[in-house]
Amino acid sequence: MSRSRLARPADRLARGTYLAARRRLERTASWIARARRDDLTGWRAALGCWARVALLALGVVLVARLIRALPALMWLLSGVWLVAAWRAGKPAPSETPAEPSEKPSGEAPVMAPGEALRALLLEVMGEADAVHLSTVLAHLQETGHWRGRTVTDLRRRLAALGVPHDRSVKVAGVPTWGVRRKHLQEGSEAPSPAPFQETSPEASTAA
């Protein structure tokens, strides 16, 4: 009995640790990649990327020395990470089995294409004119969908649904893969029955 009570929080922490670590690695990689200059070629274009890598390495060294000087700091960092992992591993209501006839929740991103898909993307976009795909993916994963997937998987899914997106969408001055409001408002129907439902990696690749 005690084993079953401990299994659920342990599973949540393990899943949250994986998701939190992956999310931070993807954001770090994206931050480094944004330093590459398109107006230069060869090694000069990548100088900014290497500078950010060096900055990260310096930060790791400084944190390691600080922890060595103040070992008690490790307890604080561990506590912060456990809280982040616990929040990231929170199960979504959609993970609970439900009858097909049950009234769908307004928060569930598993929905039909067309208007419902554009409504979801516009909801994540808020008052802005565009949204990055990394933000959309984070929203989906926080609500219990597409865990373990990447921005590339999301791009393939949107392409299969005919949703326009490109790599030069700027949000807060940062250009990367995203969707623009004007393209969503134009609209396009697609044959897929559920744009963000959980599918096998093989099915996602095929899409």
Can you tell me about this structure?
Keywords: Membrane, Transmembrane, Transmembrane helix. The chain crosses the membrane at residues 43-63. The protein is mostly helical and 207 residues long. It has two domains: 2-88, no CATH class; 107-206, no CATH class. 56% of the residues lie in helices and 8% in strands. The protein has helices at residues 2-33, 47-69, 73-88, 115-125, 133-142, 151-161, 181-186, 201-206; strands at 130-132, 166-171, 174-180. The protein has a three-stranded antiparallel sheet with strand order 1-3-2. Helix 1 packs across helix 3. The chain is flat. The termini are far apart.
> Got a strand count?
3
Biggest sheet character: 3 strands, antiparallel
State the assembly state of the protein chains. single chain
What structural class do the secondary elements suggest?
mainly alpha
What is the N-to-C order of secondary-structure elements (H for helix, E for strand)? HHHHEHHEEHH
Q: How much helicity do the residues have?
A: 55-70%
Distance between the termini: 43 Å
Parts with pLDDT < 50 across at least 5 consecutive residues: 94-112, 188-194, 199-207
How many structural domains does the protein architecture include? 2
| Radius of gyration of CA atoms, rounded to a whole number | 20 Å
Which range does the strand content fall in?
5-15%
Question: How are the strands of the largest sheet arranged?
Answer: 1-3-2
Count up the helices: 8
Average pLDDT, rounded to a whole number, is 76
So what's the overall shape?
flat
